[in-house]
Amino acid sequence: MIRIAIPNKGRLHDPTVSLLREAGLPVLEGSTRKLFAKTTDPEITYLFARAADIPEYVQDGAADVGITGLDLINETDAKVEVLLDLKFGAANLVLAVPEDSPISSAEQLEGMRVATVFPNITRKYFDNAGVKIEIIRVSGACEMTPHVGIADAIVDISSSGTTLVTNHLKMIEKVFSSSVYLIANRKSMQKDGKIEQIKTAVESVLRAKGKRYLMMNVPAEYLEQVKKVLPGLAGPTVMKVESDESMLAVHAVVGSDTIFATVGELKAAGARDILVVPIERMMP
Ligand SMILES: Nc1ncnc2c1ncn2[C@@H]1O[C@H](COP(=O)(O)OP(=O)(O)OP(=O)(O)O)[C@@H](O)[C@H]1O
Ligand SMILES: O=P(O)(O)OC[C@H]1O[C@H](OP(=O)(O)OP(=O)(O)O)[C@H](O)[C@@H]1O
Ligand SMILES: [Mg+2]
Protein backbone atom coordinates (compact mmCIF):
# COMPACT_ATOMS: atom_id res chain seq x y z
CA MET A 1 0.00 0.00 0.00
CA ILE A 2 1.30 3.45 -0.95
CA ARG A 3 0.06 6.55 0.85
CA ILE A 4 0.44 9.88 -0.97
CA ALA A 5 0.21 13.08 1.11
CA ILE A 6 -1.32 15.99 -0.79
CA PRO A 7 -2.21 19.54 0.31
CA ASN A 8 -5.64 19.52 1.94
CA LYS A 9 -6.40 23.14 1.05
CA GLY A 10 -4.70 26.35 0.03
CA ARG A 11 -3.39 27.25 -3.40
CA LEU A 12 -1.64 23.92 -4.00
CA HIS A 13 -4.70 21.71 -3.52
CA ASP A 14 -6.52 22.22 -6.84
CA PRO A 15 -3.51 22.01 -9.20
CA THR A 16 -2.28 18.89 -7.35
CA VAL A 17 -5.65 17.18 -7.72
CA SER A 18 -5.81 18.13 -11.43
CA LEU A 19 -2.33 16.78 -12.11
CA LEU A 20 -3.10 13.48 -10.38
CA ARG A 21 -6.34 13.12 -12.33
CA GLU A 22 -4.45 13.66 -15.60
CA ALA A 23 -1.89 11.08 -14.49
CA GLY A 24 -4.68 8.52 -14.17
CA LEU A 25 -4.77 8.65 -10.36
CA PRO A 26 -7.91 10.70 -9.62
CA VAL A 27 -8.62 11.75 -6.04
CA LEU A 28 -11.98 10.15 -5.32
CA GLU A 29 -13.25 12.43 -2.58
CA GLY A 30 -16.43 11.89 -0.60
CA SER A 31 -16.26 15.13 1.29
CA THR A 32 -13.49 17.74 1.43
CA ARG A 33 -13.21 17.42 5.22
CA LYS A 34 -12.07 13.83 5.04
CA LEU A 35 -8.54 12.87 6.04
CA PHE A 36 -8.12 10.11 3.44
CA ALA A 37 -9.30 9.50 -0.10
CA LYS A 38 -9.11 6.62 -2.50
CA THR A 39 -8.08 6.47 -6.11
CA THR A 40 -8.79 3.96 -8.86
CA ASP A 41 -5.75 1.88 -7.83
CA PRO A 42 -6.63 -0.08 -4.67
CA GLU A 43 -2.94 -0.06 -3.65
CA ILE A 44 -2.82 3.75 -3.39
CA THR A 45 -4.52 6.09 -0.90
CA TYR A 46 -4.35 9.84 -0.43
CA LEU A 47 -3.75 11.58 2.86
CA PHE A 48 -4.78 15.24 3.06
CA ALA A 49 -2.33 17.35 5.03
CA ARG A 50 -1.13 20.93 5.39
CA ALA A 51 1.43 21.69 2.69
CA ALA A 52 3.94 22.71 5.37
CA ASP A 53 3.58 19.39 7.25
CA ILE A 54 3.99 17.14 4.23
CA PRO A 55 7.85 17.03 4.17
CA GLU A 56 7.97 15.67 7.73
CA TYR A 57 5.11 13.23 7.15
CA VAL A 58 7.07 11.79 4.24
CA GLN A 59 10.37 11.79 6.12
CA ASP A 60 8.81 9.95 9.08
CA GLY A 61 6.92 7.45 6.90
CA ALA A 62 3.41 8.65 7.76
CA ALA A 63 3.20 8.97 3.99
CA ASP A 64 5.31 7.19 1.36
CA VAL A 65 5.01 9.95 -1.22
CA GLY A 66 4.19 13.66 -0.96
CA ILE A 67 3.47 16.69 -3.09
CA THR A 68 4.47 20.08 -1.70
CA GLY A 69 6.58 23.21 -2.17
CA LEU A 70 10.39 22.99 -2.34
CA ASP A 71 10.59 25.97 0.05
CA LEU A 72 8.67 23.97 2.67
CA ILE A 73 10.86 20.91 2.04
CA ASN A 74 14.04 22.94 2.52
CA GLU A 75 12.72 24.82 5.52
CA THR A 76 12.01 21.59 7.41
CA ASP A 77 15.28 20.10 6.15
CA ALA A 78 13.36 16.84 5.67
CA LYS A 79 15.43 13.81 4.72
CA VAL A 80 13.37 12.74 1.74
CA GLU A 81 13.98 11.71 -1.84
CA VAL A 82 13.20 14.68 -4.11
CA LEU A 83 11.84 13.01 -7.25
CA LEU A 84 10.39 15.52 -9.66
CA ASP A 85 9.73 19.22 -10.24
CA LEU A 86 6.00 19.42 -10.97
CA LYS A 87 6.36 22.90 -12.53
CA PHE A 88 3.53 24.63 -10.73
CA GLY A 89 3.23 26.72 -7.57
CA ALA A 90 6.31 28.68 -8.59
CA ALA A 91 7.26 31.45 -6.17
CA ASN A 92 10.40 33.11 -4.86
CA LEU A 93 11.48 33.75 -1.32
CA VAL A 94 12.78 37.30 -1.49
CA LEU A 95 14.61 39.64 0.80
CA ALA A 96 12.69 42.94 0.88
CA VAL A 97 12.95 46.27 2.68
CA PRO A 98 10.64 49.32 2.89
CA GLU A 99 10.67 51.15 -0.45
CA ASP A 100 12.24 54.27 1.12
CA SER A 101 15.01 52.28 2.86
CA PRO A 102 18.62 53.02 1.84
CA ILE A 103 19.47 49.31 2.26
CA SER A 104 20.13 47.58 -1.05
CA SER A 105 21.94 44.34 -0.16
CA ALA A 106 22.04 41.58 2.46
CA GLU A 107 25.49 42.81 3.65
CA GLN A 108 24.02 46.10 4.77
CA LEU A 109 21.66 44.28 7.16
CA GLU A 110 24.51 43.32 9.55
CA GLY A 111 23.19 43.43 13.11
CA MET A 112 19.61 44.18 12.00
CA ARG A 113 16.33 42.27 12.31
CA VAL A 114 14.78 40.17 9.54
CA ALA A 115 11.23 38.85 9.93
CA THR A 116 10.20 35.65 8.17
CA VAL A 117 8.01 32.56 8.11
CA PHE A 118 11.13 30.69 6.88
CA PRO A 119 13.74 31.06 9.67
CA ASN A 120 15.93 28.14 8.55
CA ILE A 121 16.24 29.15 4.90
CA THR A 122 16.83 32.74 6.03
CA ARG A 123 19.46 31.70 8.57
CA LYS A 124 21.35 29.66 5.95
CA TYR A 125 21.20 32.49 3.43
CA PHE A 126 22.69 35.05 5.81
CA ASP A 127 25.23 32.56 7.19
CA ASN A 128 26.43 31.93 3.62
CA ALA A 129 26.75 35.66 3.07
CA GLY A 130 28.66 35.93 6.39
CA VAL A 131 26.17 38.46 7.71
CA LYS A 132 24.94 38.35 11.32
CA ILE A 133 21.28 39.20 11.75
CA GLU A 134 18.52 38.63 14.28
CA ILE A 135 15.69 36.52 12.91
CA ILE A 136 12.17 37.46 13.94
CA ARG A 137 10.01 34.41 13.40
CA VAL A 138 6.42 35.15 12.40
CA SER A 139 3.65 32.82 11.24
CA GLY A 140 2.12 35.11 8.58
CA ALA A 141 1.45 38.70 7.53
CA CYS A 142 5.21 39.18 7.43
CA GLU A 143 5.02 42.19 5.13
CA MET A 144 3.66 44.48 7.85
CA THR A 145 6.53 43.90 10.29
CA PRO A 146 8.89 46.62 8.97
CA HIS A 147 6.09 49.16 9.19
CA VAL A 148 5.40 48.52 12.87
CA GLY A 149 9.04 48.58 13.93
CA ILE A 150 9.39 44.82 14.49
CA ALA A 151 11.92 44.25 11.70
CA ASP A 152 14.19 46.11 9.26
CA ALA A 153 13.66 43.65 6.42
CA ILE A 154 11.67 40.55 5.56
CA VAL A 155 12.21 37.27 3.75
CA ASP A 156 8.82 36.35 2.32
CA ILE A 157 7.14 34.58 -0.57
CA SER A 158 6.55 36.66 -3.67
CA SER A 159 5.09 35.52 -6.96
CA SER A 160 3.29 38.32 -8.78
CA GLY A 161 4.98 40.91 -6.53
CA THR A 162 1.64 42.60 -5.78
CA THR A 163 1.83 42.08 -2.03
CA LEU A 164 5.24 43.76 -1.84
CA VAL A 165 4.07 46.78 -3.82
CA THR A 166 0.83 47.07 -1.85
CA ASN A 167 2.84 47.09 1.36
CA HIS A 168 5.41 49.63 0.12
CA LEU A 169 8.24 47.14 0.10
CA LYS A 170 10.93 46.45 -2.51
CA MET A 171 12.83 43.28 -3.22
CA ILE A 172 16.59 43.60 -2.89
CA GLU A 173 17.70 39.97 -3.30
CA LYS A 174 16.26 36.63 -4.33
CA VAL A 175 16.83 34.11 -1.54
CA PHE A 176 15.23 30.92 -2.86
CA SER A 177 13.40 29.77 -5.96
CA SER A 178 10.55 27.36 -5.28
CA SER A 179 7.98 25.26 -7.09
CA VAL A 180 6.04 22.17 -6.18
CA TYR A 181 7.85 18.81 -6.05
CA LEU A 182 7.08 15.12 -5.83
CA ILE A 183 8.95 13.64 -2.86
CA ALA A 184 9.21 10.16 -1.37
CA ASN A 185 10.21 8.43 1.82
CA ARG A 186 13.65 6.86 1.41
CA LYS A 187 12.73 3.44 2.81
CA SER A 188 9.50 3.31 0.80
CA MET A 189 11.53 3.92 -2.37
CA GLN A 190 13.42 0.69 -1.76
CA LYS A 191 10.45 -1.50 -0.96
CA ASP A 192 8.14 -0.81 -3.84
CA GLY A 193 8.30 -0.23 -7.59
CA LYS A 194 4.96 1.52 -7.29
CA ILE A 195 6.58 4.85 -6.47
CA GLU A 196 8.53 4.71 -9.73
CA GLN A 197 5.24 4.04 -11.52
CA ILE A 198 3.65 7.06 -9.88
CA LYS A 199 6.62 9.22 -10.87
CA THR A 200 6.50 7.94 -14.46
CA ALA A 201 2.77 8.63 -14.72
CA VAL A 202 3.12 12.20 -13.43
CA GLU A 203 6.19 12.80 -15.58
CA SER A 204 4.30 11.69 -18.68
CA VAL A 205 1.64 14.34 -18.03
CA LEU A 206 4.25 17.08 -17.61
CA ARG A 207 6.02 16.02 -20.78
CA ALA A 208 2.75 16.10 -22.75
CA LYS A 209 1.78 19.56 -21.51
CA GLY A 210 4.34 21.25 -23.72
CA LYS A 211 3.39 19.29 -26.84
CA ARG A 212 0.56 19.10 -29.39
CA TYR A 213 -0.31 16.38 -31.88
CA LEU A 214 -0.63 17.67 -35.43
CA MET A 215 -2.59 15.84 -38.10
CA MET A 216 -2.93 17.03 -41.68
CA ASN A 217 -3.47 15.99 -45.25
CA VAL A 218 -0.67 16.66 -47.70
CA PRO A 219 -0.79 16.24 -51.49
CA ALA A 220 2.12 13.90 -52.33
CA GLU A 221 4.01 16.52 -54.33
CA TYR A 222 4.24 18.79 -51.23
CA LEU A 223 5.48 16.15 -48.80
CA GLU A 224 9.14 17.15 -48.91
CA GLN A 225 8.33 20.81 -48.26
CA VAL A 226 6.03 19.89 -45.37
CA LYS A 227 8.68 17.64 -43.80
CA LYS A 228 11.10 20.57 -43.78
CA VAL A 229 8.67 22.57 -41.62
CA LEU A 230 8.17 19.82 -39.04
CA PRO A 231 10.92 20.04 -36.44
CA GLY A 232 13.18 17.11 -35.72
CA LEU A 233 11.04 15.29 -33.17
CA ALA A 234 10.15 11.65 -33.80
CA GLY A 235 8.32 11.43 -37.08
CA PRO A 236 6.49 12.67 -38.93
CA THR A 237 4.35 9.59 -39.53
CA VAL A 238 3.26 9.50 -43.16
CA MET A 239 0.29 7.35 -44.25
CA LYS A 240 -1.61 6.81 -47.48
CA VAL A 241 -5.14 8.17 -47.64
CA GLU A 242 -7.18 5.23 -48.96
CA SER A 243 -9.76 7.25 -50.90
CA ASP A 244 -7.30 9.55 -52.64
CA GLU A 245 -4.08 8.06 -54.03
CA SER A 246 -2.30 11.39 -54.38
CA MET A 247 -3.02 12.47 -50.78
CA LEU A 248 -0.96 11.59 -47.69
CA ALA A 249 -1.93 11.88 -44.01
CA VAL A 250 0.93 13.33 -41.96
CA HIS A 251 1.07 13.19 -38.15
CA ALA A 252 3.70 14.77 -35.90
CA VAL A 253 4.30 15.90 -32.33
CA VAL A 254 5.36 19.54 -32.01
CA GLY A 255 6.07 21.97 -29.19
CA SER A 256 2.97 23.95 -28.19
CA ASP A 257 4.99 27.17 -27.98
CA THR A 258 5.77 27.00 -31.69
CA ILE A 259 2.36 25.79 -32.86
CA PHE A 260 1.16 29.14 -34.19
CA ALA A 261 4.15 29.61 -36.47
CA THR A 262 4.29 25.95 -37.46
CA VAL A 263 0.65 25.83 -38.62
CA GLY A 264 1.22 28.93 -40.77
CA GLU A 265 4.32 27.41 -42.35
CA LEU A 266 2.57 24.09 -42.96
CA LYS A 267 -0.28 25.83 -44.77
CA ALA A 268 2.21 27.72 -46.89
CA ALA A 269 4.05 24.47 -47.65
CA GLY A 270 0.86 22.89 -49.01
CA ALA A 271 -0.66 21.06 -46.01
CA ARG A 272 -4.44 21.17 -45.58
CA ASP A 273 -7.17 19.95 -43.18
CA ILE A 274 -4.78 20.59 -40.26
CA LEU A 275 -5.88 19.39 -36.82
CA VAL A 276 -4.12 20.40 -33.58
CA VAL A 277 -4.87 17.97 -30.76
CA PRO A 278 -3.80 18.06 -27.09
CA ILE A 279 -1.80 15.09 -25.79
CA GLU A 280 -2.78 13.65 -22.43
CA ARG A 281 0.36 11.72 -21.56
CA MET A 282 3.68 10.97 -23.27
CA MET A 283 5.91 8.06 -22.34
CA PRO A 284 9.22 7.68 -24.13
N1 LIG B 1 1.79 33.64 -4.17
C1 LIG B 1 2.10 32.69 -3.31
N2 LIG B 1 1.98 32.90 -2.00
C2 LIG B 1 2.24 31.95 -1.10
N3 LIG B 1 2.67 30.71 -1.40
C3 LIG B 1 2.83 30.44 -2.71
C4 LIG B 1 2.54 31.40 -3.72
N4 LIG B 1 2.77 30.83 -4.91
C5 LIG B 1 3.19 29.58 -4.65
N5 LIG B 1 3.23 29.34 -3.33
C6 LIG B 1 3.69 28.09 -2.70
O1 LIG B 1 2.61 27.49 -2.02
C7 LIG B 1 3.10 26.83 -0.85
C8 LIG B 1 2.27 27.28 0.33
O2 LIG B 1 1.05 26.69 0.22
P1 LIG B 1 0.02 26.78 1.44
O3 LIG B 1 -1.12 25.87 1.12
O4 LIG B 1 0.72 26.60 2.73
O5 LIG B 1 -0.33 28.31 1.35
P2 LIG B 1 -1.67 29.05 1.11
O6 LIG B 1 -2.29 28.67 -0.18
O7 LIG B 1 -1.36 30.48 1.30
O8 LIG B 1 -2.58 28.50 2.26
P3 LIG B 1 -2.76 29.16 3.70
O9 LIG B 1 -4.03 29.91 3.58
O10 LIG B 1 -2.86 27.97 4.57
O11 LIG B 1 -1.57 30.05 3.93
C9 LIG B 1 4.55 27.17 -0.72
O12 LIG B 1 5.33 26.09 -1.19
C10 LIG B 1 4.73 28.35 -1.64
O13 LIG B 1 6.02 28.43 -2.19
O1 LIG C 1 3.55 38.20 -4.83
P1 LIG C 1 2.11 37.90 -4.58
O2 LIG C 1 1.43 37.32 -5.79
O3 LIG C 1 1.37 39.07 -4.05
O4 LIG C 1 2.02 36.70 -3.51
C1 LIG C 1 2.73 36.72 -2.30
C2 LIG C 1 1.83 36.78 -1.11
O5 LIG C 1 0.92 35.69 -1.10
C3 LIG C 1 1.04 34.97 0.10
O6 LIG C 1 0.12 35.34 1.03
P2 LIG C 1 -1.30 34.62 1.15
O7 LIG C 1 -2.27 35.22 0.20
O8 LIG C 1 -1.14 33.16 1.02
O9 LIG C 1 -1.75 34.99 2.59
P3 LIG C 1 -1.13 34.39 3.96
O10 LIG C 1 0.06 35.25 4.26
O11 LIG C 1 -2.25 34.57 4.91
O12 LIG C 1 -0.79 32.97 3.72
C4 LIG C 1 2.44 35.29 0.58
O13 LIG C 1 2.58 35.10 1.97
C5 LIG C 1 2.65 36.70 0.14
O14 LIG C 1 2.16 37.58 1.11
MG1 LIG D 1 -0.59 31.68 2.53
TrEMBL record:
InterPro entries with a match to the protein in the record: ATP-PRT_HisG_long, ATP_PRibTrfase_cat, ATP_PRibTrfase_CS, ATP_PRibTrfase_HisG, HisG_C, N-reg_PII-like_a/b, N-reg_PII/ATP_PRibTrfase_C
One Pfam family cited in the UniProt record for this chain: HisG_C
Claim: Signal is one of the keywords in the record: no
Chain ranges of the Histidine biosynthesis HisG C-terminal domain: 208-281
SUPFAM superfamilies associated with the record: GlnB-like (SSF54913), Periplasmic binding protein-like II (SSF53850)
Job description of the protein: Catalyzes the condensation of ATP and 5-phosphoribose 1-diphosphate to form N'-(5'-phosphoribosyl)-ATP (PR-ATP). Has a crucial role in the pathway because the rate of histidine biosynthesis seems to be controlled primarily by regulation of HisG enzymatic activity.
PANTHER family: ATP PHOSPHORIBOSYLTRANSFERASE (PTHR21403:SF10), ATP PHOSPHORIBOSYLTRANSFERASE ATP-PRTASE (PTHR21403)
Keyword list, A-Z: Amino-acid biosynthesis, ATP-binding, Cytoplasm, Glycosyltransferase, Histidine biosynthesis, Magnesium, Metal-binding, Nucleotide-binding, Transferase
Domain ATP phosphoribosyltransferase catalytic: 50-203
EC number from the UniProt entry: 2.4.2.17
Regulation: Feedback inhibited by histidine.
Family affiliation: Belongs to the ATP phosphoribosyltransferase family. Long subfamily.
GO terms under biological process: L-histidine biosynthetic process
A Gene Ontology cellular-component term: cytoplasm
Protein name: ATP phosphoribosyltransferase
